[in-house]
Amino acid sequence: GVVVAYNTEPVRKSAGSCIFLHIWKGPGETTAGCTSMTEANLLMLIHSLDKTKNPTLVQMPASEYESLKKLYKLP
């Protein structure tokens, strides 16, 4: 998995402690604030991350992504 440095410096009380990207358990399974995906997608993501480029996690509904895709030149 991947640990997302959320609420780490400075730590804000009652704002959560961390976010993980991890393997999806299956249909109907949810997480408690993490992001889950298939093992293949997680491995692809892990291998594409470059810490020196300061990767940033941005999450949004698919419809919003589609409307912003062209503006921000997203994949």
Average the pLDDT over all residues and give the rounded result: 86
Low-pLDDT segments, ≥5 res: none
- N- to C-terminal separation? 22 Å
Secondary-structure-based class equals alpha+beta
Number of strands: 3
Question: What strand line-up does the widest sheet have?
Answer: 1-2-3
Put simply, the count of helices is: 2
The biggest beta sheet reads: 3 strands, mixed
Q: Compute the CA-based radius of gyration.
A: 14 Å
Spatial shape: globular
Helix content: 10-25%
Query: How much of the residues is beta strand, in percent?
Result: 5-15%
Order of helices and strands: EEEHH
Task: Tell me what the structure shows.
There is one protein chain. The chain is an alpha+beta fold and 75 residues long. It has two helices and three strands; from the N terminus they run βββαα. The chain has a three-stranded mixed beta sheet. It is globular. The mean pLDDT is 86.
Brief summary:
The chain has 75 residues and is an alpha+beta fold. It has helices spanning 39-48, 62-69; strands at residues 2-4, 19-23, 35-37. The two termini are 22 Å apart.
Task: Map the helices and strands.
Blueprint: E1 2-4, E2 19-23, E3 35-37, H1 39-48, H2 62-69
Parallel strand pairs: 2-3
Antiparallel strand pairs: 1-2
Features:
3 strands; single chain; alpha+beta; 15% strand; three-stranded mixed beta sheet; 24% helix; 75 residues
